[in-house]
Amino acid sequence: MAAIAVAVAACGGASPSPAPATPTLTAASPSASPGGVPTQSGSPAASASASASPASSAGSSIGLPHVDAALEDLLPGTIGNIPLEKFSEPLSTLVANSQGGEKLLYPAWLVPFAKTPDDVNVAIAVDFTNQENFHADAIQVPGASASALSAGFADVARKAGWPVTAGSVPTRSGLQITDPTAPSGVLAVGYVYASGDVLYIIVTDDASLLVEALIKLP
Q1: CB 213 within 8 A of CB 79
Q2: Fewest beta carbons less than 10 Å away: which of 50, 72, 117, 188?
Q3: Residue 2 falls within a domain, yes or no?
């Protein structure tokens, strides 16, 4: 069974018991396309494919949706010296195209904030060339606090029966969540970090890329 580990951290929130400074990452299949969180079956690439085929024209964002350029600007433009494609869309679009955990977690996560996936946007930065197994998402929930966003995400995971344990990376302490529903052959590690009213989700199998992304986030 494949697993997705998701660490949840909030600026200014209480830090759980520290774990080793360098995270132990579960190796992902080199050929796997970057995916959504918590599983790759509902990937940003998949949600964009209905209107474009970015992988066939690497480096071009023609045809990708850009409903929230300001949210896109919060995500890194490069990772490991590889340029990332950015796009943004309603979170409901990502959920609708998902066959994985997005359908289970995101709607329930938004209930305490009196929001639905139709009410919020997600921005995505991804390496469509597959030189790096990496993507990062930013989900803005106006009026919410960083601590509430991250704690709420962990709470819905627990209620779904997903194991939640303490974990940390350099400068970012949080929780590790294992997704027992991830499809066979899909292995990745995601970290979720909240700042202001934005929840950031990073999925990669490379610890150095994870640290680079966290440094570049607000």
Answers
A1: yes
A2: 50
A3: no
